[in-house]
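Teaching note: in complex prediction, the entire set of molecules is handled at once rather than each chain in isolation. The prompt given to students was simply: 'Predict the structure of this complex.' The entities are:
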Amino acid sequence: MILAWLIGILLVGGILAWLAARSHPLLCRWISLAAVSADLVLALCVAVRNFGPGHIRTNEWFEQADWSWIPQFGIHFHLAMDGLSLLLVLLTLFLGIVSVLISWTEITEAVGFFHFNLLWILAGILGVFLSLDLFLFYFCWELMLVPMYFLIAVWGRERRVYAAVKFFLFTQLSGLLMLIAILSLYFAHHHATGIYTFEYMELLGTPLSPHAAMWIMLGFFIAFAVKLPMFPFHTWLPDACAEASTATNVVLASLLATTAAYGMIRFLFPLFPRATHEFAPVAMTLGVIGILYGAVLAFSQTDLMRLLAYASISHLGFVLLGIFAGTTIALQGAVMTMIAHGISTGALFIVAGALQARMRTRELDAMGGLWDTVPRLSGAALFFALASLGLPGLGDFIGEFLILLGTYQAHVAMAAVAACGVLAATFYALRFVQRAFQGPNTHQRRLPDLAVREGLLLGAMIVLLLWLGLYPQPVFHTFAQAANHFPALWR
Amino acid sequence: MTAADVLALLPLLLVAATSVVVMLTIAVGRNHAVALGLTLIGLAASFCSIFFVHPRQVTTLLIMDNYALFFMGLIVAATFAVSLLSYGYLAKREDAKEEFYVLLLVATLGAMVLAASSHFASFFLGLEILSVALYSLIAYLHERPLPVEAGMKYLVLAATSAAFLLFGIALVYADLGTMDFAQIAHLLAGASGQHLALLLPGVALIVTGIGFKLALVPFHMWTQDVYEGAPAPVTAFVATVSKGGMFALLLRYFTQSGANHFAPVFLVFAIIAIASMLAGNLLALFQTNVKRILAYSSIAHMGYLLVALQVGGLIGAGAVVFYLVAYFAMTLGAFGVVTVLSEEQRDADQLEDYRGLFWRRPALALVFTLMLLSLAGIPLTAGFIGEFYIVAAGVAVNAWTLILVLVVSSAIGLFYYARLIMVLYQQPAGSEQAQQTLHVWTPAASLVLALLTVILVWLGVYPTLLLKVIQTAIAALV
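The expected output is the structure of the full assembly:
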């Protein structure tokens, strides 16, 4: 029941926020903040209840909500939460609060509609993390699409329409392929057992011919790969990131990618163990290409947003590699990277957004020597750049280290090449810091430093990254059951 | 005809009687509101009477089974909405307004006959009642060039296609010696090669006639011009009631005769479906006129429906019926918005009329957005469940080619829906004055749009009840 509340609060909060904006924009912001915060508190309660000291769980799924929805098709409104979902729900809600706060002064037009979209996309993301019915999963997957389209298209920058339509087309087309795959699985299950159901648990053991399993698996994979985004389906991300507002970028680069990675972990392996195993080398290769390609392109960008987008593609290549390496360690690393990348990249986009708001440009060439005038902002940028390049002691390092370690067990060459990506990250991350903040202040800029609100947000993110880097055990503990569970299925 | 027969025909009789009553009141004295009121009462009475009809065959011509009754309800409800939309639209215009409702009722009667026909004679009868009323409805604003041109175009093409249809019926009759659907299906099941000489041309001609009415590629040439020229409420009527009645008949015939298992028919309809889906969506890409965009989009939607039609069986028929209901709601809604925005002199069909609508009239923009999203098949709307149902039907029988074309063309479709939605949210560039003239509050139309939106979202979130009703309806067929 509590899971339905999680989604319901956001949906209702979105509508209320929209209505409230008619009387006062500030009221709308507070309602949104309250809704997301209430959700975060709820999710934390669940976490404490199930992972608090001395608590022993007997069931892998510790929260459930299950109602019949469209019985004619065997569709249930079935939400459930395990360790993996819990972690990602917490991440989503944290970044949700960040998004609401960061748009506090940035968004001034159609404030109500903005918050409506923001809260509904968060609800869609939570739905993706929590659904155990494949129809419901697809429903939520598609539900994320339209609010994101509006977020890019209405509050974006110059070429926003192009970027929004590109995003919409890429994800919708791939989503439809996934729909076909889901339906094929549904009918294959009916063929084998005589029961029509979209229930994840029941579909798990569906007998499929190797040929069919491969095609159905690919249908899922493409949808996830586009959303991740994986090379060569990545081209929408830099365009979208370059045009979208800060809060949108946080959701886009940090959270949507996470839903894709989650989908791979939750569905590909358990549903199609053999096909995924056969396909793993291809996916790993694409992941490695993505790591290097993203890094090289990030290095050559002059547009700050595009740089971060390509850096993001590079990091997500690691996630892909970790998921498909098929070892527990690599999978744990992938989940860790999803979380740490979500926070560090989100923070970098906030820094970039803050620079954009102050200088009205996102060209690296127009920056330089900003450290003198905005020391706190520059310090934060340096910190997150270091996190992004994988400095030990911060969350990203743990994730990428575990991915490389786990991949090494499975595939030495892949691990060796991927390790170069870590090196390349050093170049683009430090180049960003040098070009923007160090050297002489050639443009004689005098800018306001971080406001209290921005400072507190970035500070919270710094603390989280440090915590993840120095004491990652809670994350592994929460995920442990699932981590052992998944690769075992396809060995 | 027994009393029970008459009782069973009550929904049809009530609509027919209403049209006469409205005509007689016009003879006594003209009053727009009275004409509308009588029309609405008649339609409501007809709708209620549907629930009291016991399914039965009435002569060989009409079959009043649950399936026919379901579609009659749908058609009557759609006409109810169109009448309400028309009121505000006609009130702004100078022409005589009252006859509009007479024609509308007659056309509705034709569509209802189509839904219930089990015989070629009633098929043709219904089609002609519908078409003749439509000629005048399309050209109703006879002092303006566009509607008259559209009316002429429709008249010439519809008459020609009716002739094709009639010839086709004659050929089939010459070959099989019957015009009763059930008997034809029975004979076809045992048909051998010798029949094909007359039968195939006959079927081909009938397909031409049906294809014209449904605006399927390559019989779609009239669609965009008629959609553009006709008054917006009439366009809504053409797009929904006229096509819906014909599709009801087509589905009945296909399911009863098992025509989709007949290889040449399957092939022809597969090609038509693919051509309609692709051509409709591709041609819509290059349009800047909203009514034309919706015209091409409706061609594509008919293509989607054909996919489900070909799958057949319980799942295919269910998908067709559900999608038709969704299609009715979203098309009425979309044209409803066009109607509400239309000015006295011309319909709001240019993209410019919609630029920045969200900033001027957020509620209307929201309704239009939802309708377009539904046409694009996005969740929370009826269109999503409908598209899901059709894809499910296709996957169930492994019709991969059709499904892949559907997916690709629906992605193409997304492009122009997205563009249209985008226009709604752009900051308006025009002068303040131009925006003011558009702002006329029409309570009847607002009510219809609000209702349609609720239905659209309700079906998108909780389609269970409708699915249950549909299952009873198609149980009569399969």
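Point out the following to students. The longest strand of chain B covers residues 56-58. Chain B has one domain: 3-475.
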